[in-house]
Amino acid sequence: MRLFYALSTVVLVGCDFHPFIDGVPGYSRSVEESKTRNVFLTTYRPSPTSFTVKGNVFHIQTAWVERGWTHTGWLYSNTKVDAGFYADSYNFIAEVSEPSDSLADIHLQKSDNKNIHLGTSYSQLFTSGSLPLPDTLSYDLVDGMSGHDNTYLGLRLTFIKQ
């Protein structure tokens, strides 16, 4: 019987079924997904397009902004943009073409506000903000987490709205 429940869970999760995802904020994994969810707003051009940190070279493949949204229901593919908390927000996402666990060790803090930072995943840099969209987003590589008196490490990533 345990085997049946285990296999059922694997099959349901593999089929886009996620029982604990309702109301969870979402970020698209690609521009295509953002467009499919009907939340895509615009692209941003990165400068520089590649950078090196601790011997690892990262290339920014694409960067975009989408409306803030949440998952609705139990299917991963369901999207909700409503008049609630996320109605006036955006998600900024930069896709890195060489996915790596070492991306998680990078600390990028907003150039004009040390309390805002870029989150990292295996293949993306991401953050949220409030509308309207800025024309330029800039983040500095620092030696620690945001909100602290960090040392600037000589790299600024700038993203310009297209």
From TrEMBL:
PROSITE patterns: PROKAR_LIPOPROTEIN (PS51257)
Keywords on record: Plasmid
Highest taxon above the source species: Bacteria
Protein name: Lipoprotein
